[in-house]
Write a structure and sequence with these properties.
Blueprint (H helix, E strand, L loop, with lengths): L4 E5 L5 E4 L4 H17 L2 E7 L7 E8 L9 H14 L2
Parallel strand pairs: 1-4
Antiparallel strand pairs: 1-2, 3-4
């Protein structure tokens, strides 16, 4: 079984959708992302996407002193739809 999709939102508002062959590769990538964020003085906060046909988690990079701005469900659905259409 494939690992869940990973949607990364950066502090400047861009996002990336990543797919991994297994959970180990996904975990390694998350550790790398977290280390890079910490090196820039940022924090990586994760959430589980709700009500999605495909299991997906998203992480938001944000300033450590400020709260994370969680994407809306509408934004997450639009990103997943775009990903699904691109991979047909």
């Amino acid at each position: 079984m494939n690992a869940p999709l990973l949607i990364l939102f950066t502090e400047n508002g861009t996002h990336a959708v990543l797919s991994f062959p297994d959970q180990r590769a996904r975990s390694a990538h998350l550790k790398t992302e977290e280390a890079q964020a910490r090196a820039r003085g940022l924090k990586l906060t994760g959430y589980a996407a709700k009500r999605s046909s495909r299991k997906a988690d998203f992480y938001v990079t944000h300033p450590a002193a400020a709260p994370a701005v969680m994407p809306t469900p509408k934004e997450v659905r639009a990103i997943l739809k775009q990903y699904k259409e691109a991979n047909r």
